[in-house]
Amino acid sequence: MNMRAQFLNLAGLLVAGLLAAAVRGQNFTDDISVKVGLDQQLNAQVPLDLSFRDETGNAVRLGDYFGKKPVILVLAYYECPNLCTLVLNALLTSAQDLKFDAGKDFEIVVVSFDPRETATLALAKKRTYTQRYGRPQDAGGWHFLTGQEPAIAQLAHSVGYRYVFDPQTRQYAHPSAIMVLTPDGKISRYFAGIEYPSKELRRALVEASNRRIGSLTDQLFLLCFHYDPLTGKYGLVIMRVIRIACFATVAALAFFMATMFRRDRRQSTRTGTG
């Protein structure tokens, strides 16, 4: 086999491999995009009788945090290496800018959707955020809960929060959002993404405290983050970049092969006429 034939065989294998990788990446991404998301269910009632454990390990009911004040509900998991931290940090920044005080004017309830997580992790997370909140007298307004899979799944379903666990990376693919609920546990407003303007959050808390239901939230910026199957983390459209690079490589190889064939034809023509 001459060098040209060897090169063509190698190029063919490379092209086939790149195309297969792109298809696998596309299929995985499509699968994640179907399973993960946020279905806004305004005015839906969250089940207040669900049982969880607070950051001290004590058994609590979700309804213990409702009744008199609006509630900011966050679904996250405490060992998340990426998106959950961004969500909690954004909430912290907005809460710091509010003139309202957690515990006095509203409650913040964070529920881990990873049933493997413990009260020890919840307590560590609470200490981190209440210290950064900078209002020691309001630390009691922040609650970090853990629970069993049935209760977690029922709560997530009630607010339209869809997530999946990837056993390969042992991480979750999930949307980024917080919810504002009325004192009686009805969904008043969603905030999607990783920025929650304090003015908008204040307005939502006022509406919820008056048991009013807000309007639908634009979810387009949820698409800013995609789950990356290569690293098991979230990145900015990483799979799209990989696919573009893949097809660019295929195009370059096709151009090179076409150039070689044209050169061979010219040489054959010259040889025949000579």
- End-to-end gap: 27 Å
CATH superfamily of the largest domain: Glutaredoxin
What order do the SSEs take from the amino end to the carboxyl end, as H and E? HEEEEHEHEHEEEEEHEEH
Strand content bin: 15-25%
Question: Mind sketching the topology for me?
Answer:
Elements: H1 3-35, E1 37-38, E2 51-53, E3 59-61, E4 71-76, H2 83-97, E5 107-112, H3 119-133, E6 142-145, H4 149-159, E7 161-162, E8 164-166, E9 171-173, E10 177-181, E11 187-192, H5 198-209, E12 226-228, E13 233-235, H6 238-273
Parallel strand pairs: 4-5, 5-6
Antiparallel strand pairs: 1-7, 2-3, 4-10, 8-9, 10-11, 12-13
Helix pairs in contact: 1-6
Q: Can you tell me about this structure?
A:
This protein is of the alpha+beta class and 274 residues long. The protein folds into 2 domains: 3-34 and 237-273; 37-234, 3-Layer(aba) Sandwich (Glutaredoxin). It contains 6 helices and 13 strands. The chain has helices at 3-35, 83-97, 119-133, 149-159, 198-209, 238-273, and strands at residues 37-38, 51-53, 59-61, 71-76, 107-112, 142-145, 161-162, 164-166, 171-173, 177-181, 187-192, 226-228, 233-235. The chain has a 5-stranded mixed beta sheet, with helices on both faces. A hairpin with a 5-residue loop joins strand 10 (177-181) and strand 11. The longest helix is centred in the C-terminal third of the chain and has 36 residues, at 238-273. It is elongated, with a radius of gyration of 26 Å.
